[in-house]
Each structure stands twice: as structure tokens, then as C-alpha cells.
Write a structure and sequence with these properties.
Distance between the termini: 145 Å
Order of helices and strands: HHHHHHHHH
Shape: extended
Number of strands: 0
């Protein structure tokens, strides 16, 4: 009887050890293949997402944050209404004194009048301003629509002459509005770059700017000398 048999165990054969080693290697190789495929899928998904981000508008992130803020704002407003609270009061309770002061300064600096950009924009602003001052009589509007029928929405071939007559009240309102615009236009004064009544003491625009700078810094000290030169009494 051999020593191994006396110890109660049998020594594994070389073929069993080799097959076990091959199985381990195949298992590792399979894991590597799975990891490679997973990496390929993740890389492809990232490439697709990057391509989507490139095709998005330049201000997409800002618009997204704005939309999320609007949704959250509406949600909080609805919650405050459900509780029977004034949302503006609840919102202002969460604002610190420094933040409130900053918002107040920003509100004061904000100028709703953007100034003149082009004639089309100016005409549209005038139209919007005039429309806001008009009060629509919905009952009269509905009666006129029923009376005129399809002619209420005229096309290029629709003849409106004789179908509608303006009331005297509407004519008076139009006349008052025209007079108001004329009066406002008379009060309007365009700021001029040059003062036609001012003395010309320059030869070009650059010299004019230089003279203004000299006057700003040394005008108080040279005023008497200038007056003497103008009177001809300078020594």
C-alpha cells in the first residue's frame, strides 16, 4: 500500500489538472469578451449622446433650466393655492434682505424703453401701445360678426363698401387719439449732437472733443482771460 493510499487521498492526474486550467482560461477569456462588448456598447451610446448634444441649440441648457424653473414655480404656486396662501407673500418670505435689495436695484435700473432700432420695430411698438388703450365691446363684436357673416373676415375679393358704418362715438375716439398723437409729437424734442447756437471754436470733430476736454479741466481758470480777449482788453 502506498503512502497516499494510507493518508486516505488520491493524487489528481495530470489530465484533470490540464482540463481544469483550460476551463479557467476559457472562463477568463469569456469574461474579457463580455467586458469588451460592454465597453463597445457604452462607447457607442456615449458617441450617440455626444452627437445629440452637438446638434442641440447653443442656448439649450439655459432654456432647459428656464423651463425647469417655470415648472417648479407653477408647482409651488399650485401648492400655495391648495393651502389657501398667497404665493407672492410666501415667495417673498424666503428672500433675504440682501437679495431683496439687489432685486430692487436691478428693477430700478431696468429701462422698459429699448429706444429706436428700426422703423418697423417703432411702428409695431406704436401699434401695441394703441391696441392696449382700446376697450373691446364683445357684445357689439358678436353682433357685427353675425350681421356680416363671411364678410366679417374679408379676403382680397371681398367688397366692404356699404356693409359697415362707423358710429359717431368711434369717429370721436379716433379724432381724440389723432389729436393726442399730434400734441405728443409737438412736445417731442430730438436730442441733437451739435448746438447750432453755440460758438464754433473748432476745425473738426477731433478738435471739438479736445476743446471740450480743455474746457472741462481748465475752464474755471481761463474764463477771465477769455473774456478779456473777447472784449479786447487783454494786456
Amino acid at each position: 500500500m502506498s503512502v497516499s493510499e494510507v493518508a486516505g487521498g488520491s493524487k489528481p492526474s495530470s489530465s484533470t489538472t490540464a482540463s481544469s486550467s483550460v476551463a479557467d482560461r476559457m472562463k477568463k477569456l469569456k469574461e474579457l469578451h463580455m467586458r469588451r462588448n460592454e465597453a463597445r456598447r457604452e462607447n457607442h451610446a456615449e458617441v450617440v449622446e455626444e452627437d445629440k448634444r452637438k446638434n442641440l441649440p447653443a442656448n439649450y441648457e439655459a432654456r432647459k433650466r428656464r423651463q425647469e424653473w417655470i415648472v417648479n414655480e407653477e408647482k409651488r404656486k399650485q401648492e400655495a393655492l391648495d393651502r389657501g396662501e398667497d404665493y407672492d407673500r410666501v415667495k417673498h418670505l424666503d428672500i433675504t434682505a440682501d437679495e431683496a435689495e439687489r432685486l430692487q436695484r436691478k428693477k430700478k435700473k431696468k429701462n422698459p424703453d429699448t429706444g429706436f432700432s428700426d422703423y418697423e420695430a417703432a411702428t409695431f411698438r406704436l401699434y401695441e401701445r394703441n391696441v392696449k388703450g382700446i376697450k373691446v365691446d364683445m357684445d357689439k363684436y358678436e353682433s357685427e360678426r353675425e350681421k356680416l357673416g363671411e364678410a366679417f373676415y374679408p379676403t382680397a375679393g371681398t367688397v366692404l363698401h356699404g356693409l359697415h358704418k362707423d358710429s359717431q362715438d368711434s369717429i370721436n375716439k379716433m379724432a381724440d387719439d389723432v389729436e393726442r398723437q399730434i400734441s405728443k409729437r409737438d412736445k417731442y424734442s430730438r436730442r441733437r449732437k451739435y448746438d447750432p447756437d453755440a460758438d464754433v471754436d473748432y476745425i473738426n470733430e477731433r478738435n471739438m472733443a479736445f476743446n471740450k476736454k480743455l474746457e472741462r479741466f481748465y475752464g474755471d481758470y481761463t474764463q477771465e482771460t477769455k473774456q478779456n480777449l473777447e472784449r479786447g482788453t487783454a494786456v
